[in-house]
Amino acid sequence: MKTISEIMANMIAFSNGNIHDIDHFVRVWNYARTIGALEGLDADTLYILEVAAIVHDIACPLCREKYGNTNGKRQEEEGAPMAADFLKDSGMRLEQIERVAYLVGHHHTFTGIDGIDYQILIEADYIANATENGYSQSNVRNFAKKVFKTDAGVRLLKSIFVM
């Protein structure tokens, strides 16, 4: 099975020099890894979470070209099969690849969250997006109240936004 570092290097190469995309998934991965470790995830769940965080926006270049934007629903539709294809030679078990593809295919869906890996990916991606895009304090507070569930995610969000 490929290491997280190998998957990261492959995703950086896949990103074809798009610094914004690379910086974003590295930030999401760091937040996800931090939250996952603080929440005490087992090694397999943490691995799946980290891989999903690295590849969660794999469809962004395609969406920009095909649709002219990176709409979240389009990312989910296009991203799930792309993630599965990207990981097919990773040595991951089929059920691991399927879970990563599921997470990629739902990372903009904030209802029906069905696992700690899914919850943490949502939280990590939101933190990265909020810091990158300068979300207002009211937006951050509202999203935190409605969506954040992990103690570690709430703690990081409050620390970053001094809430």
Keywords:
163 residues, mainly alpha, Hypothetical protein af1432
Give the topology, please.
Blueprint: H1 4-14, H2 19-38, H3 43-55, H4 60-67, H5 72-87, H6 94-104, H7 116-133, H8 137-146, H9 151-160
Helix pairs in contact: 1-3, 2-3, 2-7, 3-6, 3-7, 4-5, 5-6
In short:
This protein is mostly helical.
Helix and strand element order? HHHHHHHHH
Distance between the termini: 40 Å
Overall mean pLDDT stands at 97
Low-confidence stretches: none
Domain module count: 1
* CATH overall fold name: Hypothetical protein af1432
* Number of helical segments with 4 or more residues: 9
Taken from the alpha-carbon principal axes, the silhouette is globular
- Work out the strand percent: under 5%
Percent range of helical residues = over 70%
Rg to the nearest angstrom? 15 Å
The chain-level structural class is mainly alpha
So what's the CATH class? Answer: Mainly Alpha
Largest sheet geometry: none
CATH superfamily: Hypothetical protein af1432
Number of extended strands:
0
**CATH architecture level-2 label:** Orthogonal Bundle
How does this model look, in words?
The protein has 163 residues and is an all-alpha fold. Helix 1 packs parallel to helix 3 (43-55). The protein has one domain (4-160): Hypothetical protein af1432 (Orthogonal Bundle). The mean pLDDT is 97. The radius of gyration is 15 Å and the shape is globular. It has helices at 4-14, 19-38, 43-55, 60-67, 72-87, 94-104, 116-133, 137-146, 151-160.
